[in-house]
TrEMBL record:
InterPro entries: MFS, MFS_trans_sf. Pfam families: MFS_1. One of its GO terms (cellular component) is membrane. It comes from Colletotrichum gloeosporioides (strain Cg-14). Keywords: Membrane, Transmembrane, Transmembrane helix, Transport. This is Vitamin H transporter. It is a multi-pass membrane protein.
């Protein structure tokens, strides 16, 4: 019979609740590294296999806590994603909605440094998920409201790499706090990380009230001249990007009556599920340290940041190339590299260096989102409401499935060699590639058909004019 988990969490276990989010300084991906580091130190002090086995069980128990922390965050994030996106699509609110959520997020982050019990953590994680709903999807939605397709990809890539820079920076912050802040003013080093996160994000959230532009129809920001604002609005009209309209049943007909929503959601769900191994390098390093003793605590925290460096380069390079070459071509190359990294892990018995290479190459997957999401946004350029709904749906269903998928396919007890996990992952990556490639093909057919209709309409008008003459 299972024993109920204690309500109050020990300092050692609660340390690993330091989980911030994809757009902030310390990242979810770094938490397993800290967890593995603590257990590794404890294991190094034991002298017999029985003690090591007990510590391993304790480590897995701690990861159950971590999974619950993430589950409550995901619940808040998932249920509010579509409503938040629809609210952001309203010009009246779009300029102030995201900064407000950012400020509230910062306040809640400060509060986390004093949490002591599991219910407190669960509630906080849920609220953090709610407050983060408009950040990733909303930022890309706003970018797609101001930029043409050939301009959008690079901007989306530059925005998206901030996630990976945050992961890199977060890894170094954790290592520094572990070393320098532990015990200062009677607080553990990991608690100081929440204070540092809040100090960084709060000024940015406040600045958003003054510099975040909202949508072109939200009114002129103070830092744009009237002429510049009018140019921005005209550019979008020329590109065929429609202004926001009233949310009605027409929006649902536009969303569910065409192929764009189905392709976009399917591709993103498969991608998010297939991207799970990116960020799990720390578990492999911990395993290598247990077997061979070749990595230290700081190394387990910092070595995986190299994969985030690859992510930064890949996202910027791939989205920049989308300005020169067809987007579908760049997507094929990115997915081929992504697939190669997964195949190496499937084979598993490869040279040590190739394992390193494959974990780092998983970082190339960071180029998928800034290609996939703007592409789907552009496909739906004729309806701001449909764009918002589709983007929110992509993240809602993507995170809903990827929240439980790793628990089934990538259980911690099988780490770091997930035999079935990498096999299933192979088909997820393949499915993502096939679905978005199909979307590119369908959109080209749609564009050709629309051009032919426009040409026929012009010819008809010309014929009518001649007839009148």
């Amino acid at each position: 019979m299972a024993t109920a988990a204690p309500t109050t969490i020990s300092e050692e276990t609660f340390q690993h609740q330091h989980v911030t989010t994809e757009h902030h300084v310390a990242k979810d991906a770094a938490v397993p590294a800290v967890a593995a580091s603590t257990v590794m130190e404890e294991a190094g002090q034991t002298e017999n296999q029985a003690q090591k086995r007990s510590l391993w069980i304790a480590w897995l128990y701690m990861f159950d806590w971590y999974s619950m922390f993430q589950t409550f965050y995901n619940i808040g994030y998932i249920i509010c994603q579509v409503p938040a996106m629809l609210l952001l699509s309203r010009p009246k609110y779009s300029r102030y909605f995201l900064p407000t959520m950012e400020v509230l997020w910062s306040v809640l982050t400060f509060a986390q440094c004093k949490l002591q019990t599991a219910p407190q953590i669960y509630g906080t994680r849920f609220l953090l998920g709610v407050l983060e709903t408009p950040v990733a999807s909303g930022s890309l939605f706003i970018l797609s409201s101001w930029y043409k397709p050939e301009e959008l990809f690079k901007r989306a890539g530059l925005w998206y790499v901030s996630n990976n820079i945050g992961v890199m920076f977060g890894g170094y912050l954790q290592a520094a706090a572990y070393k320098n802040l532990n015990g200062v003013h009677g607080m553990a080093g990991w608690r100081w990380l929440f204070i540092i996160d809040g100090c960084i994000s709060l000024p940015i959230g406040i600045a958003g009230y003054f510099i975040f532009p909202g949508m072109p129809t939200s009114g002129k920001p103070w830092w744009l001249t009237q002429e510049e604002h009018e140019i921005g609005q005209r550019r979008m009209r020329e590109e065929g990007i429609e202004e926001p309209k009233k949310i009605s049943m027409q929006m649902f007909k536009r969303v569910f009556g065409h192929w764009h929503w189905y392709i976009g959601v399917l591709a993103y769900v498969l991608f998010l599920s297939g991207a799970y191994p990116h960020g799990q390098m720390a578990l492999w390093l911990k395993d290598q340290a247990d077997k061979w003793g070749i990595y230290t605590v700081p190394q387990i925290n910092t070595i995986p940041t190299g994969a985030q460096g690859v992510s930064v380069v890949a996202a910027v390079l791939a989205t920049s190339l989308c300005m020169v070459y067809p987007t579908w071509v760049i997507f094929q190359i990115v997915m081929a590299i992504f697939m190669f990294a997964n195949i190496v892990q499937m084979v598993w018995f490869v040279p040590h260096g190739l394992h390193f290479v494959s974990y780092y190459l998983f970082g190339v997957s960071a180029a998928v989102t800034p290609i996939l999401v703007p592409t789907v946004n552009y496909w739906l350029k004729d309806s701001a409401e449909a764009r918002a709904f589709c983007t929110g749906s992509m993240l809602t269903l993507g995170f809903a499935i990827s929240s439980f998928y790793p628990l089934v396919v990538f259980p911690v007890v099988e780490a770091p060699r997930w035999k079935k996990g990498y096999i299933v992952n192979f088909f997820f990556i393949l499915g993502c590639w096939a679905s978005l490639t199909t979307g590119f093909f369908l959109y080209r057919k749609q564009e050709k058909r629309q051009k032919q209709l426009d040409l026929d309409e012009e010819n008809l008008k010309g014929a009518n004019v001649k007839h009148v003459d």
